[in-house]
Design a protein that fits this description.
The structure is a single chain. 43% of the residues lie in helices and 13% in strands. The chain is of the alpha/beta class. The protein has a single domain, classed as P-loop containing nucleotide triphosphate hydrolases (Rossmann fold, 3-Layer(aba) Sandwich), CATH 3.40.50.300. Strands 3-4-2-5-1-6-7 form a seven-stranded mixed β-sheet, sandwiched between helices. It is globular, with a radius of gyration of 18 Å. 43% of the residues are buried. The structure holds adenosine-5'-diphosphate and magnesium ion (MG). Adenosine-5'-diphosphate (ADP) binds next to helix 1 and helix 10.
């Protein structure tokens, strides 16, 4: 069964694209067949993976009838990971792109035509509460909300939670809030730590895993690679996404009542 997860936040620069990419990679490295979908009209995933303004075929081309959905899916060098990019889209055509996405059954049909054989689909969305985010939530099993470690992010997080709740009640009853992921937590900054403490105290569903603020993320975007693919010693921040992938996998099993595929082990002697 494929599990679709929308990564959404009302706030710009909260870490949506970074989380989608690095979480998708961590899931694939666990062996789960994973598809990352770029539903942001600005093409954040493409920008994160390529230097310069590249024009990969993708969703926009499929919507225009210029490309078959399966031809738009890119197989990465990691066998379990594929990417469906935003596609070639002139900035002046963003409104048409968004309207096309909202067409009845359009996104559902698109997902069904590409997700066969995948365990996970992670959908990156633009900042805000607009059409692509609504359309993605309306077709997803789960929503994941990056919560930036800044007071402004905490103050406005109720907006995306309200939209998720509304979509669940009115459009897609299978949608579940997977959780809120603290991102860009600056451990040397009191205001940032305060956001973390307040979110754990006042909000339901905050993940145990947090993503700290670190310069290595800038290095990764400069290089056009996920953290785990940077050269040099393994970065502790990449390990965070492995922890996140484990936490999410267990949570999804709990929420869907699926048995984790744990192999039973016999008691052993240590000494
Ligand atoms: N944990 C982090 N620490 C430092 N910088 C980060 C972190 N996560 C993301 N960034 C950087 O912050 C910027 C915005 O992140 P991004 O994932 O594009 O946010 P969004 O998709 O929500 O707009 C990017 O330049 C990214 O490299
Ligand atoms: Mg983004």
């Amino acid at each position: 069964m494929t599990r679709r997860t929308t990564i959404a936040s009302q706030k710009g620069g909260a870490g949506k694209t970074t989380v989608t990419l690095n979480l998708g990679l961590a899931m694939a490295e666990r062996g789960d067949r994973t598809l990352i979908v770029d539903l942001d009209p600005q093409g954040g995933i493409g920008h994160s993976l390529c230097q310069g303004d590249v024009a990969l075929s993708g969703i926009a081309d499929v919507l225009m009838g210029a490309c078959e959905p399966s031809d738009a899916v890119i197989q990465t060098k990691l066998s379990a990971l594929s990417i469906l990019p935003r596609g070639k889209l002139d900035a002046v055509d963003v409104c048409e792109f968004e309207q096309a996405l909202l067409g009845e059954g359009v996104l559902e049909e698109l997902f069904q035509s590409v997700e066969g054989g995948f365990d996970h689909v992670f959908i990156d969305t633009p900042s805000g509460l607009g059409m692509p985010t609504r359309a993605a939530l309306a077709t997803s099993d789960f929503a994941l909300v990056p919560l930036q470690g800044e007071p402004l992010a905490l103050r406005s997080v109720h907006q995306i939670l309200r939209v998720i709740d509304h979509v669940k009640r009115n459009e897609n009853e299978r949608l579940e809030l997977l959780g809120l992921l603290p991102t860009m937590v600056d451990r040397g900054n009191q205001a940032s730590l305060e956001v973390l403490i307040q979110s754990w105290r006042d909000l339901a569903g905050v993940f145990e895993t947090i993503i700290p603020r670190a310069d290595v993320f800038l290095e990764a975007s400069e290089t056009g690679l996920p953290l785990a693919y940077l050269s040099g010693p393994k970065r502790p921040e990449a390990r965070r996404f492995e922890m996140l992938a484990n936490e999410i996998s267990n949570l999804m099993n709990e929420l869907t009542g699926t048995e984790a595929g744990n192999v039973e082990q016999a008691q052993r002697q240590l000494l």
